[in-house]
Amino acid sequence: MITMKAITCLILAITYLKVNGLISNNVIDLTWPFNNKTISWGAGKKFEITKENFVDGPDGTWYGSREFALAEHSGTHLDAPYHFYKNGWKVDEIPLSRLIATCVKINLSEETEKFGHKARLLPKHLNDWEQRNGPVPPNSVILVYFNWGQYYHNESKYLGGENSTLYRFPALSPQAAQWIADSNKVVGVGLDTPGIDPGEGPPTKPVHTILAKNQIYALENVKIPPDFPEKGAQLLSMPMLLSGGTGAPVRIISDVSNK
Ligand SMILES: *[C@@H]1O[C@H](CO)[C@@H](O)[C@H](O)[C@H]1NC(C)=O
Ligand SMILES: *[C@@H]1O[C@H](CO)[C@@H](O)[C@H](O)[C@H]1NC(C)=O
Ligand SMILES: *[C@@H]1O[C@H](CO)[C@@H](O)[C@H](O)[C@H]1NC(C)=O
Ligand SMILES: *[C@@H]1O[C@H](CO)[C@@H](O)[C@H](O)[C@H]1NC(C)=O
C-alpha cells in the first residue's frame, strides 16, 4: 500500500533531481544525423558506410557492425581554432569547460527573408541582443538562427551551388566576428548554415581567422529549432575526441526546460 508519506518522498526526490538538472523531459538535439544526406564541404569525403556485416543467425543470434568514412568538416561539426590558426587548439585540446556554455541565440530569420543568402550577422544585432537581455554572459556560445536549416535537405539550395566556388549562404560579417572576439566572453559561435564565412568573396576566410586567433571554436550546420530560447539555455557540444583534429563531428544538446 502506497502511503501519503511515500508519495511525498517521491515528489520531493523528483523535484530535487529536476532542480539540480539531473533529469528533464526537455533535452533537445541540435544535431543533424550522419547518413548519406550529410553535407561535406567542397570535394571533402562524403559520409559513407564502407563496410557492413550483419549476421542474422538461424538460432536467433544476431551480430551487426559497420565501418564509415567522412571528412572532418561534414554534417553538424565543430571547427577547432587549429583549422585556421596554426597555434590554435586542436579538437582534443579545447578545454571541456568551454564545451558546456551559456547560449546567446540571435534570431535573424527576418534578415534571411529580406536578403536571402546575403543575410549577415552584424555588430548591431549583438548590440540589440544586449539591449534586450543585458551583457553577453561569460563562457557563451553565440548561436545564430538564419532559418537556413529549412533547406538542409536540398543540398544545392543549402550550399548555394554544385562546387565550393559557387557556394552562397548566410554567415557572419568580419565586424561581428571582431565584436565577438573583443568581448572576451565568447567560447564558440554556431549557426544553421554550412559556414561562418559566406561562400562568396575572396578565398580568404576572415571570420574563421579572427575567431580562431582568439581560440573561439565554430559549430556549423547546427539544427536550430525555430522556438529555441534567445537567452538562458545551456549548450553541451561534444565533438568526437579526435587527436589532432582540425574539426570533428559534434553532438550538440540543450536542456530548454524552464525557459
Ligand atoms: C541512403 O540511405 C537510405 C537509408 O539507409 C537508403 O535507403 C538509400 O538507398 C541510401 N542512398 C544511397 C544513394 O546510398
Ligand atoms: C532545390 O532548390 C533548387 C534551388 O532553389 C530548386 O531549383 C530545386 O527545385 C530544389 N529541389 C527540390 C528537390 O526541392
Ligand atoms: C564550378 O562549377 C562551375 C559551373 O558549373 C564551373 O564553371 C567551375 O569551373 C567549377 N569550379 C570548380 C573548381 O570545379
Ligand atoms: C524570430 O523572428 C521572426 C521575424 O521577426 C519572428 O516571426 C519569430 O517569432 C522570431 N522567433 C522567435 C523564437 O522569437
UniProtKB/TrEMBL annotation:
Gene Ontology MF terms in the entry: arylformamidase activity
Record's keyword annotation contains Chloroplast: no
An example Gene Ontology biological process: L-tryptophan catabolic process to kynurenine
Family from the record: Belongs to the Cyclase 1 superfamily.
Keywords: Signal
Gene3D superfamilies, sorted: Putative cyclase
Record SUPFAM superfamilies: Putative cyclase (SSF102198)
InterPro entries documented for this protein: KFase/CYL, KFase_sf
Organism of provenance: Pyrocoelia pectoralis
Pfam family, one: Cyclase
Signal sequence interval, chain numbering: 1-21
Protein name according to UniProt: Kynurenine formamidase
Keyword Signal among record annotations: yes
